[in-house]
Write a structure and sequence with these properties.
302 residues, alpha/beta, nine-stranded mixed β-sheet, 11 helices, globular, binds iron/sulfur cluster
Length: 302
Amino acid sequence: MGFPADMSATADRLSEIVQSCNVCPRQCYVDRTTGETGFCEAGIKAQIASAGPHFGEESPLVGTRGSGTVFFSRCNLGCVFCQNAEISHRAGKSVSTHELADLFLTLQQSGCHNLNLVTPTPHLHAIISALIHAGKQGFDLPVVYNSSGFESPEVIELLNGVVDIYMPDIKSFDTKWCLKYLKTQSYPAAALATLKACYDQCGNLKTDSSGNAINGIIVRHLVMPNMTEDTKSIIDHVAEICGQNVYLNLMDQYRPCFQAGQYPEISRSISSKEWTDAVEYAVSLGLTRGLKRRFKTLDKRT
Ligand code: SF4
């Protein structure tokens, strides 16, 4: 994207926001600069769980040399079925802005096609400062914002010109379901607004001549047990907002992880029928870009 971009205004605003934190729609209003923590338990320094070239992402991100992925700790959403709880909900390694900038540069030097920020939202103030530092040292990879879609409109606006590829993972548009399993009933409205804002900002996914992502939106949705109608509603909204050329990754790998065993409705993997219904519905609306009709995980199971 041509770093260094002028991101100082974005960094300044995010530094203000964390003093009464409403980085995300939880709106905890805690002063993270004094050691207070909100729902996500993130401090003022960024916390990372792991980082490195990742080959399990969507093919336009992986290319031949991998997606330079940084897994941040302290997710702001808090799904009871989190598929990544070891990473998202535990304390990670606290890193300074300069250490984070060095990490971004190392991923670039190792040949990664992009910088893939996973669960970045609570750490955005530190990430932007690190991008400024890295940009001064030649960092210029496309930046991927890989989140749950639980964002505030102001934050998405602040990221205009910083993020190249948005990757919201849309969980559900069912308010009662979200209250029970995501611990917030504001998720559906927030995720819908995020989807629209990201699409308006960068449009559908564009790739270079090698098929590697340059900018645009990749929409993810993890198909869940007993949620076929909700999945169809999500696909409807994605089609309406982004059109038929959207890159939509329906995912079949749901497992009853973390606290899911306490909830009978989600304490199993999805069935073949639930998967087929989701895929066929997407196909019926013409949403085939990014769609994997036969996922390996389900093939192994059936
Ligand atoms: S980022 Fe964390 S502290 Fe800030 S509003 Fe969201 S959940 Fe609360």
